[in-house]
């Protein structure tokens, strides 16, 4: 429900700042009506409410103060940071007041250096400790002195200017604090993210969001240190050691799997039969690998490499495995024989799904390959060649 009041203390979305939330309490008695957002329509603030109210009702407007306080601290903090970045010839291109407790960000034409980020953070906190004042002034304007940032549909003629003494001054419709001392502290994250060309985003939190960011970070570091069995200052180096060890272990595992695939391929070839003019073979094995299809594929490559020494020789092989990660099946060889084998699998094994040309790939829909299904696969490769 859209409700317009004669006047309101709830801030409508604008200037990069989200709207307030709150409630309308009918007077003298009544149940409060929730206000989920407020949008500006021209010079009117339209309240989007949970239920309607009779025209002419008198209401007490109540603001969600925790949300308002959060928005005031982040917005005032943004003005401070933008003013300080201006001294580095880094004008603010845009900014975002995100939902709490996520960090807000300022977009700049280039990424500041770590030293510049540290300098801006230190300077901002010095201004906070000094209790720098924030003044708001209203001036009349016409089209000849209209600020570029003023919305096109705004025709009120009054321009509101926020002045953080000695730091930043400019038009702004947002809610601000009268003194920087109320911000308590500002934290500028020591990294940036690239956007659009050379532009970069600088992330920051102010006031209550600083503690909200610190608590999970400190607890996360504590938990990591406990898992690694080291002191917190040693956690980063320990993590690097674990990551490096993991990479080396995966390389060794890959080499071992490739070596094993070679031995398995030799066993499959040794057990292969000659049906007519073609080599045929079948393998059904247990495999606890997280990606069993990858191992079967490597085995198939080794078999192909061995058979390349007999150009023109027809062949057909079926490789299957069972494990917690699934029950894949690949059929490869002479394309015509693979096509026949695929048709036979579809006709004889209803719980197997798959397809492909030149290489048939599929899987058992559920569970593991049974001994009886292994026999059916062997019959499939023989019958495909003998068809």
Automatic annotation (TrEMBL):
Coiled-coil stretches noted in the UniProt entry, renumbered to this chain: none
Keyword terms, alphabetized: Metal-binding, Zinc
Cytoplasm is among the record's keywords: no
UniProt keyword Zinc, yes or no: yes
GO molecular-function terms, A-Z: metal ion binding; nucleotide binding; Ser-tRNA(Ala) deacylase activity
Name of the protein this chain belongs to: ThrRS/AlaRS common domain-containing protein
Species, as recorded: Calocera viscosa (strain TUFC12733)
């Amino acid at each position: 429900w859209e409700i317009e009041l004669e006047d309101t203390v709830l801030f409508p979305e604008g200037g990069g700042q989200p709207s307030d939330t709150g409630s309308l309490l009918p007077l003298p008695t009544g149940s409060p009506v929730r206000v989920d957002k407020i949008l500006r329509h021209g010079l009117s603030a339209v309240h989007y409410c949970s239920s309607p109210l009779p025209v002419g009702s008198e209401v007490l407007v109540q603001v969600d103060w925790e949300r308002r306080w959060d928005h005031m601290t982040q917005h005032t903090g943004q003005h401070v940071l933008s003013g300080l970045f201006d001294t580095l010839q880094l004008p603010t291109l845009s900014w975002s007041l995100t939902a709490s407790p996520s960090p807000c960000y300022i977009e700049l034409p280039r990424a500041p250096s770590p030293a510049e980020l540290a300098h801006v953070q230190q300077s901002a906190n010095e201004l906070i400790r000094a209790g720098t004042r924030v003044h708001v002034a209203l001036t009349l304007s016409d089209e000849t002195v209209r600020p570029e940032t003023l919305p096109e549909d705004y025709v009120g003629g009054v321009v509101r200017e926020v002045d953080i003494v000695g730091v930043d001054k400019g038009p702004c419709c947002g809610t601000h604090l009268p003194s920087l001392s109320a911000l308590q502290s500002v934290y500028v994250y020591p990294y940036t993210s690239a956007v659009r060309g050379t532009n970069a985003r600088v992330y920051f939190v102010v006031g209550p969001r600083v503690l909200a960011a610190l608590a999970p970070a400190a607890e996360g570091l504590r938990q990591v240190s406990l898992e690694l069995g080291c002191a917190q200052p040693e956690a980063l180096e320990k993590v690097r050691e674990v990551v490096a060890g993991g990479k080396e272990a995966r390389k060794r595992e890959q080499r071992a799997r490739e070596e094993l695939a070679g031995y398995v391929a030799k066993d499959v070839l040794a057990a292969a039969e000659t049906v007519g003019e073609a080599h045929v073979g079948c393998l059904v094995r247990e495999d606890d690998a997280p990606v069993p299809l990858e191992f079967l594929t490597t085995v198939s490559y080794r078999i192909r490499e061995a058979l390349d020494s007999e150009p023109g020789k027809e062949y057909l092989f079926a490789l299957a495995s069972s494990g917690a990660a699934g029950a894949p099946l690949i059929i490869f060889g002479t394309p015509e024989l693979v096509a026949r084998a695929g048709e036979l699998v579809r006709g004889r094994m209803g719980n197997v799904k798959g397809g492909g040309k030149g290489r048939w790939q599929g899987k058992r829909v559920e569970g593991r390959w049974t001994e009886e299904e292994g026999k059916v696969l062997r019959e499939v490769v023989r019958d495909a060649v003998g068809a």
